[in-house]
Write a structure and sequence with these properties.
With 455 residues, the chain is an alpha/beta fold. Helices cover 37% and strands 15% of the residues.
Length: 455
């Protein structure tokens, strides 16, 4: 529904939700009804890679019209690497129905939970909107060739920015403080430019039998979180004066939690751990207590949330106007990388030039022995590669003239002349006896490989 709504929505003015056109005009109202009924709703498609901001704003607008007076929301999202138990933690804390299992979450999924009337007056919000996001790429992923160590998939940064921009509380779920995905601090820095700084809670999941780690101290600026903050500030061009302790995403003292493993032993026969449920309940209790005792937040209405989504569209970088949609990584060449003829020219140019070679032979009808010649070509190339190891400077050119077979090759000057002449005579005699036809080698020696072009 989100894709159809985005496709049929016209270009809207800055700061306004564009009016839909066509039969998809009622889609946001249907999505709002599903949310109020307790069904999870896909916010962004992880397979398509796009972030439908108009669809998000339309659903929130329909939700505001449906709720009328009770429109105070507390938005809570969870970010982290893949397979650390983000969906399981949200289901345990709030009784939700997110899909669990390694890699089950695709894109961003949200679910609405209504708060009872007596508690809503005490807490200050009427509904809890939980956002379960797809796992982000962690530090273990190798950087692209020629890329920097801090290179991150821009789609991960965009999805994390959307989740942080919508949220009042962000749970960062990792197995170790050093495993925080690089997209998380960049998302916090982007939203900090707009004046939005949600509360950050760091959840450290411990495996079965692993020792409990010491609580993280915010004063440890040289720790892994501080280093990740400095790297993110450099990528976001925030200036050299930023210290690790000033990072927007660093949790303050008392906002770091250690979550034990879910299972006692190896699933599926292992029983569930009671300590996991107790830790999740403690995190939920302290989180609600901090929000209740904290300063009042006037930014919990749906209208303010819609404005934040529209203002965050520039920071999310999902359109070509922001110069962030790119099909590939482009790097400026230094003129020291050799490329071949096939790498230097586009495929249609090569096909046009090489098509001249088959201009006259393409009219042959019923030509026999094509498969046999293919096998012969493969054998001859392997034979020359083994006879002259490390000496071939380029691909072989095989020619057949009547009953004569010609092998043309470029060789590097790595063999003494007497050995080269011996191998030439040996190859011609052996191949002539094997194929029962004259075989001649036309060789040219070069001091080094001939580079077609440098980039």
């Amino acid at each position: 529904m989100g894709r159809l709504y985005e496709a049929e929505s016209g270009p809207g003015k800055a700061g306004k939700v564009p009016g839909p056109r066509g039969p998809s005009a009622h889609f946001p109202r249907l999505a709002a009804e599903l949310l109020l009924a307790g069904f999870p709703l896909g916010l962004a498609d992880g397979d398509a890679g796009g972030l439908p901001l108009r669809w998000v704003a339309g659903v929130l607008t329909a939700l505001q019209a449906r709720l009328r007076g009770r429109c105070r929301l507390l938005v809570l999202s969870v970010l982290g690497a893949r397979g650390v138990g983000k969906s399981t933690l949200l289901n345990t804390m709030f009784g939700l129905q997110f899909a669990t299992g390694g890699g089950r979450a695709r894109g961003d999924v949200l679910q609405l939970v209504e708060v009872a009337e007596p508690f809503s007056r005490d807490l200050g919000w009427d509904f809890l909107l939980a956002i379960d996001s797809e796992g982000l790429a962690g530090r273990g992923r190798a950087a692209p060739e020629g890329g920097e160590e801090g290179d991150v998939d821009e789609r991960d940064v965009a999805r994390a920015t959307l989740a942080v921009g919508l949220s009042h509380v962000v749970l960062v779920s990792v197995t170790d403080a050093a495993d925080v995905p690089p997209a998380v601090p960049r998302a916090f820095l982007r939203m900090e430019r707009l004046g939005h700084r949600p509360s950050c809670q760091l959840l450290l999941h411990q495996g079965p039998g692993s020792p409990a780690a010491a609580p993280w101290d915010p004063a440890e600026g040289a720790g892994p979180l501080g280093q990740r903050s400095v790297a993110a500030a450099g990528l976001e061009k925030r200036g050299p004066g930023r210290t690790p302790g000033q990072a927007a995403f660093l949790p303050t003292r008392g906002h770091t939690w250690h979550i034990p493993g879910l299972w006692h032993g190896t699933p599926p026969m292992a029983p569930a751990s009671l300590a996991y449920s107790e830790a999740a309940l403690e995190v939920k209790r302290c989180l609600i207590e901090n929000l209740r005792n904290g300063p009042p937040d006037p930014d919990r209405s749906i209208s303010q949330l819609i404005e934040r989504v529209l203002s965050a569209s520039r920071s999310i970088h999902t359109t070509a106007a922001c110069s962030k949609n790119r099909a590939a990584r482009v790097r400026v060449g230094k003129g020291n990388k050799p490329v071949t003829y096939e790498e230097a020219h586009p495929p249609h140019y090569i096909a046009h030039r090489k098509g001249w070679l088959s201009h006259h032979t393409s009219n042959l009808d019923g030509e026999g022995g094509v498969a046999e010649r293919t096998v012969e070509d493969v054998f001859l190339r392997k034979f020359m590669l083994g006879t002259f190891p490390g000496c071939l400077a380029d691909q072989l050119v095989l020619k057949r003239r009547a009953n004569q077979l010609l092998i043309c090759a470029l060789l590097l000057q790595r063999l003494p002349p007497h050995k080269l002449y011996f191998l030439v005579g040996y190859s011609e005699a052996l191949l002539s006896a094997f194929y029962k036809c004259p075989v001649r080698l036309h060789l040219q020696t070069l001091p080094a490989k001939v580079v077609y072009k440098y980039i």
